[in-house]
């Protein structure tokens, strides 16, 4: 889901580059352009991109140059044009995705976080009720969810488990009825 949202095309170089201390160029409405570039404190190059020509930043790419190549390490996206980052992606030195966060209700907090190992999704954390606490955890094997863990009573402890087969069918469930964090009841 998040991958589709971050596949928004955005240039990392272009015809319009603005020094950090100068005014943004006038861009015709509906034209994508680079608004500014600067070096960050941690040594990355930051490129702010306006995709829709409204003179506001829609995407920020953070990359490092090495041997004439640009290596994208972070990408921030403002999906709803409110000036806040809604999707944040991080990449490793090999260019593989490491982590991706999404703010689904646009309140400034991540509600969905995907973690990746060697570019493959390994775990997802979800705040299903948007209360600021993750309550659903999905674990992946070979690109498929194989286990789900839930905190159904908002006590910050897992109290419901589902094990899934290769096709995504639930094969086993478990519950923690006494709140000690371990499975008390199992069903197959």
Characterize this entry briefly:
The protein is mainly β and 188 residues long. It has one helix at 2-6, and strands at 33-39, 45-50, 59-66, 69-77, 87-91, 97-102, 112-117, 120-126, 136-141, 144-150, 160-164, 170-175, 185-187.
Query: Mean of residue pLDDT?
Result: 84
N-to-C SSE series?
HEEEEEEEEEEEEE
Multimeric organization: single chain
Taken together, the total number of domains comes to 1
Helix content: under 10%
Percent of residues in beta strands?
35-45%
How is the largest sheet built, in terms of strand order? 1-2-3-4-5-6-7-8-9-10-11-12-13
Main pleated sheet? 13 strands, antiparallel
| Overall outline | elongated
Number of helices: 1
Structural notes for this entry:
With 188 residues, this protein is mainly β. The protein has one domain (2-134). Helices cover 3% and strands 43% of the residues. It contains one helix and 13 strands; from the N terminus they run αβββββββββββββ. It has a 13-stranded antiparallel beta sheet with strand order 1-2-3-4-5-6-7-8-9-10-11-12-13. Strand 1 and strand 2 (45-50) form a beta hairpin. The chain is elongated.
How does the SSE layout of this entry go?
Layout: H1 2-6, E1 33-39, E2 45-50, E3 59-66, E4 69-77, E5 87-91, E6 97-102, E7 112-117, E8 120-126, E9 136-141, E10 144-150, E11 160-164, E12 170-175, E13 185-187
Antiparallel strand pairs: 1-2, 2-3, 3-4, 4-5, 5-6, 6-7, 7-8, 8-9, 9-10, 10-11, 11-12, 12-13
